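Target chain:
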Amino acid sequence: MIEKIILALGLVLVIEGLAYALAPSAIEAMLEALKRTPLETRRLIGLIALALGVFLIWISKITAV
Protein backbone atom coordinates (compact mmCIF):
# COMPACT_ATOMS: atom_id res chain seq x y z
CA MET A 1 0.00 0.00 0.00
CA ILE A 2 2.70 2.50 0.97
CA GLU A 3 4.55 1.67 -2.26
CA LYS A 4 1.54 2.77 -4.29
CA ILE A 5 1.26 6.04 -2.36
CA ILE A 6 4.94 6.77 -2.93
CA LEU A 7 4.54 5.88 -6.62
CA ALA A 8 1.53 8.18 -6.97
CA LEU A 9 3.33 11.09 -5.29
CA GLY A 10 6.36 10.51 -7.48
CA LEU A 11 4.23 10.58 -10.62
CA VAL A 12 2.58 13.82 -9.54
CA LEU A 13 5.98 15.40 -8.92
CA VAL A 14 7.28 14.25 -12.31
CA ILE A 15 4.30 15.77 -14.13
CA GLU A 16 4.47 19.00 -12.11
CA GLY A 17 8.21 19.23 -12.64
CA LEU A 18 7.85 18.74 -16.38
CA ALA A 19 5.30 21.53 -16.60
CA TYR A 20 7.53 23.97 -14.72
CA ALA A 21 10.69 22.90 -16.60
CA LEU A 22 9.23 22.93 -20.11
CA ALA A 23 6.77 25.83 -19.97
CA PRO A 24 7.42 28.22 -17.07
CA SER A 25 5.90 31.19 -18.90
CA ALA A 26 2.73 29.20 -19.59
CA ILE A 27 2.51 28.39 -15.87
CA GLU A 28 2.78 32.10 -15.04
CA ALA A 29 0.03 32.94 -17.55
CA MET A 30 -2.15 30.18 -16.12
CA LEU A 31 -1.65 31.50 -12.58
CA GLU A 32 -2.59 35.02 -13.70
CA ALA A 33 -5.74 33.67 -15.34
CA LEU A 34 -6.49 31.71 -12.18
CA LYS A 35 -6.24 34.90 -10.11
CA ARG A 36 -8.89 36.51 -12.32
CA THR A 37 -11.23 33.51 -12.04
CA PRO A 38 -14.01 33.86 -9.47
CA LEU A 39 -13.67 31.85 -6.26
CA GLU A 40 -16.76 29.74 -6.92
CA THR A 41 -15.47 28.78 -10.37
CA ARG A 42 -12.11 27.74 -8.89
CA ARG A 43 -13.94 25.69 -6.29
CA LEU A 44 -16.01 23.98 -9.00
CA ILE A 45 -12.87 23.21 -11.03
CA GLY A 46 -11.29 21.69 -7.92
CA LEU A 47 -14.33 19.55 -7.22
CA ILE A 48 -14.43 18.34 -10.83
CA ALA A 49 -10.71 17.48 -10.69
CA LEU A 50 -11.27 15.64 -7.40
CA ALA A 51 -14.19 13.66 -8.81
CA LEU A 52 -12.24 12.82 -11.97
CA GLY A 53 -9.28 11.64 -9.89
CA VAL A 54 -11.46 9.42 -7.71
CA PHE A 55 -13.14 8.03 -10.84
CA LEU A 56 -9.77 7.22 -12.46
CA ILE A 57 -8.57 5.51 -9.30
CA TRP A 58 -11.79 3.52 -9.14
CA ILE A 59 -11.46 2.51 -12.81
CA SER A 60 -7.86 1.41 -12.26
CA LYS A 61 -8.93 -0.70 -9.30
CA ILE A 62 -11.75 -2.53 -11.09
CA THR A 63 -9.70 -3.16 -14.23
CA ALA A 64 -6.76 -4.54 -12.20
CA VAL A 65 -8.87 -7.40 -10.84
About this structure: The chain has a mean pLDDT of 93. The helical segments are 2-22, 24-36, 39-64. The two ends are 16 Å apart (CA to CA). The chain has three helices and no strands.
